[in-house]
Write a structure and sequence with these properties.
mainly alpha; single chain; about 80% helix; 6 helices; about 220 residues
């Protein structure tokens, strides 16, 4: 392309120095300028199309990786949702037998809350966003859903999990320090039921975010066919 521009530029110079009439020179020069402008425009257009294609490919690769991350998130949320439901089921039994702890012990179940050691899979998202390429996703609805999922929903969930863990650890240590029989103390029963209420709320969040993640995956599958 550069050689073509040089060739036509030289032709303009040659025409300007030639023996043609002024009108003929203007026509020749304008024609050569038009050819140069057209060639440059075509070159820019092809470069732009090539860049756009490259961006689409990068976005597609990112979305494919993100689908794997979301499936991992779903698996972890389902796992911890099951554990929290199991804890709440045991807590119901504990509340039934709290006035007769000896009978509760015969059930051989634990009233201690589980520890939530879940981490959102953010590696691919963080890297793509940090590189300023999130705009490569042309589907605005999908892009908005991804941003909301990571920047709002998962942060809210993580904060709820941290609060749950802090209260659970504090309560478990408090009970263990005085002996498991102290679980039937009113203050500890209140704490355990507070944890039970919080765990039920977290399960609801899990259900909602699992649904959201699955919807994003469906959109990704449409974009990456």
């Amino acid at each position: 392309m550069q050689e073509e521009i040089i060739k036509h530029t030289e032709k303009i110079v040659k025409t300007a120095k030639g023996r043609h009439t002024f009108g003929e020179k203007i026509k020749e020069i304008l024609l050569e300028i038009g050819i140069i402008v057209f060639a440059v425009s075509i070159s820019i257009w092809f470069h732009s199309m090539s860049e756009k294609h490259h961006q689409r490919e990068e976005a597609k690769e990112f979305l494919i990786d993100l689908k794997t991350d979301l499936n991992q998130d779903i698996l972890l949320m389902e796992t911890y949702a099951a554990r929290l439901k199991f804890f709440n089921k045991n807590l119901e039994k504990f509340n039934q037998y709290k006035s007769n702890y000896a009978e509760f012990e015969k059930l051989k179940i634990s009233f201690f809350p589980p520890f939530i050691n879940r981490e959102t899979s953010t590696g691919d998202y963080d890297g793509f966003k940090a590189s300023g390429k999130i705009g490569y996703i042309e589907n605005k609805k999908l892009k908005s859903s991804i941003l909301k999922y990571y920047q709002q929903n998962m942060l809210r969930l993580t904060n709820a999990e941290k609060f749950f863990d802090n209260l659970s650890v504090e309560t478990s240590l408090r009970i263990n320090d005085k002996g498991v029989e102290s679980a039937i103390d009113n203050s500890n029963i209140t704490r355990l039921n507070m944890i039970g209420g919080l765990s039920a709320e977290i399960v609801q969040i899990y259900d909602q975010e699992i649904k959201t993640a699955k919807e994003i995956i469906k959109e990704i599958e449409k974009e990456t066919k």
